[in-house]
Specification:
Shape: globular
Number of helices: 3
Radius of gyration: 18 Å
Strand content: 15-25%
CATH topology of one domain: Alpha-Beta Plaits
CATH class of one domain: Alpha Beta
Structural class: alpha+beta
Helix content: 10-25%
CATH architecture of one domain: 2-Layer Sandwich
Number of strands: 4
Largest sheet: 2 strands, antiparallel
Strand order of the largest sheet: 1-4
């Protein structure tokens, strides 16, 4: 039986630690994990796509001539900020985006 134990159950046919990327794998909404979010300065972004290339969960999306994070999946790791050659992305604390009416 290889590495899979008899009582383990996989939801998707391609779910495993390795995939040939021929089908979609399990995709989880992980956006509520982050404490900071990446914000792109549209004036500095040249659309090179380095943020897309290095983003671990692959949540950077094209938005016209620049990129932005899909906040439903962004974990706030900051890799996009480190890899941006134009320094067009900054991590901003989630608290700055909170609804003022919900604060008190």
């Amino acid at each position: 039986m290889g590495f899979i134990k008899e009582n383990e159950k996989h939801i998707f046919e391609t779910e495993a630690s390795w995939s040939d990327a021929s089908e979609h794998l399990l995709c989880l909404d992980t956006g509520d994990w982050r404490t900071e979010r990446p914000v792109v300065d549209q004036d500095r972004c040249n659309g090179c796509g380095f943020c897309v290339l290095y983003c671990p969960p692959q949540c950077m999306l094209a938005d016209g001539e620049y990129f932005k994070a899909d906040l439903a999946y962004c974990k706030g790791c900051g890799v996009c900020v480190k890899e941006c050659p134009k320094q067009a992305i900054k991590m901003i604390p989630e608290g700055e985006f909170a609804d003022d009416s919900a604060i008190g």
